[in-house]
User: Fold these one by one.
Assistant:
Number 1:
Amino acid sequence: MRTGLLPLAALCFAPACQSPVTKTSDAHGWITRLVVYQGVTYGCSQAGVFVRELDGLRWLYRTDERIHDIALTNRHAHVVIVACGGVPARHGRIVVIDTGGSVVAQRTVGRDLIYAVATSPTRSQAAVACADGRVLVIDLETLEARTVHAHTSAARCVAFAPDGASLVSGGLDGLLRISSLSTTGGERVLDDHTAPVECLAYSQDGRYLASGARDGKIRVHDSGGRLLFNWYGPDQEVRDLVFDAPRIVAAFADGRLAEIDTRDRTGHVLDERGPNPLFAICCVDPTELLAAGSTIAALSTEDRPKSRR
């Protein structure tokens, strides 16, 4: 669960270190996901899955295939990492590994990449967003998969509602698709975006859903699908979102971060830019946020000048 936020500030890069712990600046590709689970920070790049330690990164799982995303959950009372990716135009793959790096289970899915994965807060399930547009729910005990819904082009992001009762995805078709996971449930389509959707985040209480698109616009809906407001950020792709009501923090492709206050619907773009494009953000605790591109930066709660948008 992503936790509390305070105003963002200075970048502090992790130090270099000796193998097997890897420098955050080593050329292992863009870091596309960071997750804090039970106080430990995990992440992934196209080269594999790692854990962040005091003196750098330690690789848990390396592969010749691409890794695009990870999510964590408990399986048989043990923490496991669910990684997704595959080989473009060949197959998608789900790999379940334990925190020691051993492969517990894996499955090939479809004929193209899997871009995103999320784990259910209430069941032993994962959901994946596929390049062929399908959004699947996978039973982590049996690895059986079923299609929940499909986009008309690639599905790019996926999230379970905090109560586990529904699933939302965003796609290159610019749509948000929300499906109930009950036997009597249906599907809703939200078409307010005018550009491909790249990221999603629910508020912790499930009352609000934020989504970010390639045109830099962030839209906030209520749990019933009603559009509450839009926030227009930099004219850059929104790469990731953290939603800790009443604040939303957004990472943009040009390295900027923004905070949006959902109470007055105003936002602040940080004046300082990261040295690289950003792909992922997460909260370590109420006083620290991590942001990642080719490196990982720790942002403290020390105030910095901001420009209001």
Number 2:
Amino acid sequence: MYRSVKVAALSIKPIKWNKAANADKLEAFVAAAAREKPHVIVAPEGILEGYVVTDVLLDARLAESMFAIAEPIDGPYVQRFQRLARASKACLCFGFAEKVDRQIFNCAIFIGADGEICGRHHKTMFREGHHPSWTFNGSGETLRAFDTPVGRAGLLICQERWYSVPAHTLVLDGAQVLFIPSYGSKRRAQNLAVLGRARENGVPIVEANVGLNLIISKGEVVAYQWGNDQITHGVIDIPQRPSPEAARRLEEQFLAWRDLEMLKRYEQADALNDVPDQDLARRCEEEFLRWQDRRRRACRRPD
């Protein structure tokens, strides 16, 4: 059994080092996306500061500037988007450089429609590798799912989507849906990687990448859009958590469908009794082939 949830992904391209302008742009896009009344709106990695860590990697003298632009979890910009979530009546998910004491983490946050922070995640994998001295780019040490208004969720950030274990770990921790803020590859290979994570784990995925939005449900792409500054809407089906109650509801649905199907098959089989003998073999063969086709479709029907 599934819960259908409306989502929106934003392929916003931020301006490096311009936190105020990026926040204004994100707010405007959230307001525009909220007109379609989605339950969740997802924006890219590093959307507030503009993913400036790449600049610091090239010039270490910029590290102090990154500390100045990084945002604490209880900072004014996070609070601004907590208020926006409440006003929009939508959950918000996006990435930013989070300042924790004298260290910065590449962070993704999930804010509920009530404005409360449901969970956050620090990036654990980096394309450029990692050194313990990089206080401007701390390495996350946990992969944890958390409860949200749309179900238990997990967050991955960009590079982590390439690997099967982080996604599977989150699903083992109960995640029913994965959200991926990204600022990276837009190649076909990344689309296939995200699709693979969804199919491996049987959960929907919403990715907001700079220049690309990808929404996957039931192992299929339900929405895809290329280009910067696009708003992509879609509906995902979030599977229910395993439980005896959910199993009994699905059992009841199946048996109700089964009763009608068996009656229909009985009536069709009974009709064969009136077929002239010379046509009986041919009609039986045709009926058997139709039955096989119904059987295949029936196996797929009870979603």
Number 3:
Amino acid sequence: MSGPFHVVLRDAIRQRGLPLQRLRAHLAERGIQVGIASLSDWQHGRAWPQQANSLRAIGSGLGSGGFIVYDDTACMVRVAHMFAKFLWLESCNQCSSCKVGTNQSMIYLQKLIEGSGGETDIEFVIEGAMMAPHGNRCYLPVEHSLSCPSIIGNFSKEFIEHYGRGCEGCRYLMLPKIHDLDEAKHKFTYSPGRHTP
């Protein structure tokens, strides 16, 4: 078989008569976690493997691992909001709990940034984070359920300082999204990502 990835994958699935649920289970037995929605998108050419496990599933690799380092002047309320907004925007909307949960967290974090938020709003942020992975098909809502409460727990004093006050002098932060890789120069180019879902 040869041709574009999605055509080869679709043909292989058809030839073997595998429903996507069985293909997912088959990959999971080999330690490769791939959602059914991702498999569907791949075989229709709407997306392609981008995570290390997904790439490993097709015998490829880009390498992965990432972290973001902020100095002590970064506002962690804005960091949490930025992550929640990014995940909300990038959510595919196939799992309503993911879209609703990330949106809920983002809205209540925005209230803290603007100065109209308080302790109850933190509870709504965490509630949104915890509801996001209910019925998930990918890892995105799990990321949200882990990152948001972790940031709040580790920087609780900073969140409390925002109650009724908001951000005072906090700088704007952007979560860069990899746009492309120039393999010859070994450099990534970044974009700000989507602005609307």
Number 4:
Amino acid sequence: MAEKSRISFTTYTDLASRPEVYDLVRKEVETVNATLPSAQRISRFLLLYKELDADDGELTRTRKVRRSVINEKYADIINGIYGGKRDIPVDTVIRFQDGTTQRIRTTLRWSISRRLRRWRRPRNEHPVPDPASGQRLVVGTLYGVVAMSFVLIYKATQVVNFAQGELLLIGAWVCWALLAKYQVPFWLGMPLTLVFMFVFGIAIQILILRPMIGEPIISVIMVTIGLSTVFQAALKWIFGVNPQPFPRVFQANPSVSSACRSRPSMS
């Protein structure tokens, strides 16, 4: 970036302290902020006097950041950014790969996105709710229920059931078939689906899982993986691979409590 912008520098420390570099980084930050919700936008940023290095314990050998090391090593800088301290003095020693050391004395100054600094919400403007927030809540709830099911099954049987998602999918397809194909009302189709899945689960327990009692735990896990594969293939063969819309459960018909029509009097 510095070479493309023709910014001359001697060392990395010199490059990281130049205002032109801060301007380039600020533009990139503002571009990213335009695609993020307000709660996730970057409000302040700072360029360190050195690159993060695995030899200093700041990165792993696969170039992943060691957050605990960063929080401890740069605690003064982090506290200065969050505390609103504009100028942060630095007096430290860095070690290079050849074993030589260099003492660095500088003053770091964090910067702020110009758009965030100038932007103010109008007084009469209220925050617009995110239309996808309801969908995220439903998806998050489903993930939570699935995770809780994994925990309950593991606590009861000490086995991780890899066919749990397919069993949930079987119940969904059975309910869809009752409601869409056979036109069964929802108040009857849902209990029938629960009864079917109860009987189906007992059949799997008696015919497949119970004979595995006493076998190594890995064997039981492999059986659940096999069931998962078989169920996926069977559902694709029976219902196809194309997604199907689930019938509407609640009809959103408007209700009219009363109506009144006046007619002009004739004399």
